[in-house]
Design goal:
- The structure is a single chain.
- By secondary structure, the chain is of the alpha+beta class.
- It has a single domain, classed as PAS domain (Beta-Lactamase, 2-Layer Sandwich).
- Helices cover 40% and strands 28% of the residues.
- The chain contains 3 helices and 6 strands; from the N terminus they run H-H-E-E-E-H-E-E-E.
- Strands 1, 2, 3, 4, 5 and 6 form a 6-stranded antiparallel beta sheet that branches.
- A hairpin with a 4-residue loop joins strand 2 and strand 3.
- 22% of the residues are buried.
Length: 151
């Protein structure tokens, strides 16, 4: 009986640890919801106020490993809460470790449809490791807003 109780306790602990680790990462549904919230915020408040909020690492558009970033259809980064050094930079020649031109692929997709998912390798600012990332984006005029999920 003691062995069974110990096994049940270990199982419950393992399930709890797994749930806690999963809760540290955002989901695809949460990424889509954050993009939609950011699009609405941009439309309601204009670029200047919206970009300032999107750049805020402690603001409403950062949640665990989820964060909003904004680019334009010319390939420039216009807002990024976790990597402010990218703001203002042309990202057209940035490649992931597999040699994929992330921004070029993204813009090609967004020229034919107003939203979609893109998967690539990228530095996770929380873990400081390159990980697979799936990013949901929506185009808003000459801009796009994205939020990615690290896998």
């Amino acid at each position: 009986m003691k062995k069974l109780s110990a096994l049940i306790a270990i199982f419950v602990l393992a399930v709890g640890v797994h749930a806690a680790l999963a809760a540290e990462k955002g989901t695809k549904e949460e990424a889509v919801a954050m993009v939609k919230k950011a699009v609405a915020y941009l439309k309601a408040n204009g670029r200047e106020k919206a970009f300032k909020e999107f750049d805020n690492p402690h603001g409403q558009f950062v949640d665990r490993d989820l964060y909003v970033f904004v680019g334009d259809m010319a390939g420039r980064c216009l807002a990024h809460a976790t990597m402010p050094q990218l703001v203002g930079k042309n990202m057209m020649e940035v490649q992931d470790p597999e040699g994929r031109f992330i921004t070029k692929e993204r813009l090609k997709m967004l020229q034919t449809k107003n939203s979609g998912w893109q998967t690539y390798k990228y530095l996770n600012p929380k873990t400081k490791k390159v990980e697979t990332k799936s990013t949901y984006m929506e185009r808003v005029g000459d801009l796009y807003i994205g939020v990615g999920v690290y896998q």
